[in-house]
TrEMBL record:
GO terms for biological process: glycogen catabolic process. It comes from Metarhizobium album. GO terms for cellular component: cytoplasm. The modification N6-(pyridoxal phosphate)lysine is found at K672. The lineage of its organism: Bacteria, Pseudomonadati, Pseudomonadota, Alphaproteobacteria, Hyphomicrobiales. Its main location: cytoplasm. It catalyses: [(1->4)-alpha-D-glucosyl](n) + phosphate = [(1->4)-alpha-D-glucosyl](n-1) + alpha-D-glucose 1-phosphate. Allosteric enzyme that catalyzes the rate-limiting step in glycogen catabolism, the phosphorolytic cleavage of glycogen to produce glucose-1-phosphate, and plays a central role in maintaining cellular and organismal glucose homeostasis. This is Alpha-1,4 glucan phosphorylase. GO terms for molecular function: glycogen phosphorylase activity; pyridoxal phosphate binding. Its cofactor is pyridoxal 5'-phosphate. Its EC number is 2.4.1.1. The keyword Transmembrane does not apply.
Amino acid sequence: MNNLPKADLPLPAPRSSQPEVLAEEIIERLTYRIGKDAQVAKPHDWLTATILVIRDRIIDKWMASTKQVYKTNAKRVYYLSLEFLIGRLMRDAINNLGLMSEIRDALTSLGVEFDVIAGLEPDAALGNGGLGRLAACFMESMATVDIPAYGYGIRYMHGLFRQQMADGWQVELPETWLAHGNPWEFERRESSYEIGFGGAVETVGGYDDTPRYVWKPAERVIAMAYDTPVVGWRAKRVNTLRLWTAQPIDPILLDAFNAGDHIGALRESNKAEALARVLYPADATPAGQELRLRQEFFFCSASLQDILRRHLQQYEDFTSLPDKVSIQLNDTHPAVSIAELMRLLIDVHNLDFEQAWDITWRTFSYTNHTLLPEALESWPVPLFERLLPRHMQIVYAINAKILVDARKSKMMNDAEIRSISLIDENGDRRVRMGNLAFTGSHSINGVSALHTELMKETVFADLHKLYPTRINNKTNGITPRRWLMQCNPGLTGLLRETIGDAFMDDAEALKALDAYADNADFRAKFAAIKRANKQVLSNLVAQRMGIRLDPSAMFDIQIKRIHEYKRQLLNIIEAVALYDQIRSRPELDWVPRVKLFAGKAAPSYHNAKLIIKLANDVARVINNDPAVRGLLKVVFIPNYNVSLAEIMVPAADLSEQISTAGMEASGTGNMKFALNGALTIGTLDGANVEMRDHVGADNIVIFGMTADEVARVRSETPNPRATIENSRELSQALAAIASGVFSPDDRNRFAGLVDGIYTHDWFMVAADFDSYTRAQREVDAIWSEPERWYSKTIRNTARMGWFSSDRSIRQYAKEIWRAG
């Protein structure tokens, strides 16, 4: 044990929260940290100065939290995730510190408007969708419920991409969130680790000695840490998000540079920097696959070296590792950590295989986020072996142990044994990262009750048979601080006025709101806040896109990653069918509706990008047709991120959660919308099942096939053409799309998309269409009775407290991590 923090050193006295003191400190930071006089300071200068003042107060609590862990020898949780979609941090940090009114007053006294400078903070481009946002919510909740934790990931320079539209097509541009630095982060140059790739493995030792294996990488880079503090509610604890950036061992090859090869001289630097430039580089090429695997190993190896170093600072050896450390793998991206921990324990710290394996599987736990076999990740054996030769040996050794044990158990036949193997021998041999994560973890959790049961029956059925106690459920949650208090201050104020402040510390106290669902005065106030939030979104759409929206219309919103199983296509086709009906039956009393979409498609996902183009083409036609009389509008808002979600979620009247049943693991957007008083239209998929149980079947609109019915229909080789021809609305809508009504410049643009529905309809768009349209007309009927509508949506807000990420984290801590 060495280098222990001196926990007995006194901490600074608490800093003042008086507005006049805060204002003085902001001026001081502006002058001495930024070098600007208040008279010439620009809004971005005020933003940075304000962040630095807030940060100082966080640091005091951060250091106290760290010292408390060392003092008590508390167990630490390490959350490994390729994504952390944390969004903007300033408002969140101020809110959790309880300083919002004081900071506003301080800035007002200086002639600065808080909301103006807060809007300048860039979104941290560290994630893509629900998996990354869940990681961010979990980090905040771990601090809130007092779990000592680190989050580990990559400090992406450009993140996923910045989405723009060119004639309705998605265009990917680099995100530049770090262009002007990041005042929230701290460079930790002392936390730097060497990461290797390629090379060969040498065996040391003769016949009488236990052989030792020495990996000699052909390439090496340095991983260096950047720390961001994560503040819990009321600043009870401040945890750490540690992100890795890559640096070359030799930044420039001077001989090559001086010889005139200026590009070649920077080859090593460019290769290193590529590791931390882009989230999810396209993997359609061998080079793209290799970069992804390099990224995953890079951050996993750095994180594990850091974890082991910290453990040895405090404890004598690694026998106590599972008792003092819990490592949670967020999906299969960090699964290579299992092989890397084995390597570090065996090759670096001289444990034998059995000791290392016992420590490893008791330390790791794994969260699965998908039932799609192709999304579980697998790597070609030649690529894995070339890039990580020692880890390939370890994977084979683990595999031998697992398969021998399975054979000895006499529980499994040959086909089942082949399915649990870490190596897929069908076709090109591949390393199955999902199987590695499962076998190397003591706990494997799903993220909704339905998803967990389906996991036992589908992707991990045979592994569940071998290890029947490992799979458990931990339904996802969202932090109510970000997704209610921060993004919807109007509703938060009304709730405090009506039911008191208890819900701010315990989201389940929102149940007290149930008593007001039929109160006319409360309904009117609730509706007024929703209308104000819709006006904010309308202003944003007008400013960014030049489209005018009527806030009195129903705002029908679907925001999520663009993917065929999430069925934005079903929503668009229904919009086309509704468009036809409004024009054909103008005498009917149609409900005014705005269909809003946002989300990004993976750069190499052709059909997803085509769906975005279809949404924009349909919008162009419908929005400009005077026959519609403004009763229907379609809007696709580009560059979906956390900050845009914080505006769209409180403005939603209707939440679209319409994935093909059995394919959405959980969803968290559904929870955010319902918490903010939206009615959900959805399938019985993911967490929708549990939401129905909590909010009541009368307060959610369910349609379509169940997961069992989808599986049965697929197994029976359905005839989508017959289904389409029996639905007049569907057949007409598909004919219009396929024939070029919405794409006059290219009549065949969407023919292939429509043909996919006619020929196989894997995502059950045709199969569920009529049920979906009936559900939408049911929504219209409820909307036409405002008292009924708002009674239902108020009950949604009242009954969503169980879906707090605080509850999720307490379950993880008690049942998986044994922490806190």
